[in-house]
Amino acid sequence: MTGTPFPIERGHVLAFARALGEEEAAAVPPTFPIAFAQFDPDWPLRMEPGKPWNGSGAEPGVAKGGPGGLHAEQEFEYIRPLRIGETLSARRRDGRTWQKPGGRGVLNFTERHIDFYDADEQLVARSTTVTVIVAAS
């Protein structure tokens, strides 16, 4: 089974921790696994040198060139602590989809999972993200 290789490098962890307002990073911050996106060539919001960035749009919640929507929820589950120096394999899988009526139209929810495996193919963490897109009524 393959996946996107995701190295947990000390410098990357420190930069991530400082972006969160921490001076030092004694351990991997709890939300750090989302940084795997920088290693995933198919991630739609990944910045690439010399190419326009998709992550900023004219309206809140709308990415240029992407489907738009709102990042509604994210949670992380840990089987064991992540360790600086290890390389994980990130594997995406689809989750549930559902709809709810909203004030501006129908709210379409999509759940996605990313499972993180260590070099021994053991599941070490899981991320679940929910996005919502408003479909005009």
UniProtKB/TrEMBL annotation:
| Annotated spans, Disordered | 46-70
Residue limits of the FAS1-like dehydratase domain? 6-125
The residues that cross the membrane are none
Gene3D superfamilies, per the entry:
Hotdog Thioesterase
Superkingdom per UniProt: Bacteria
Could you identify this protein by its name? FAS1-like dehydratase domain-containing protein
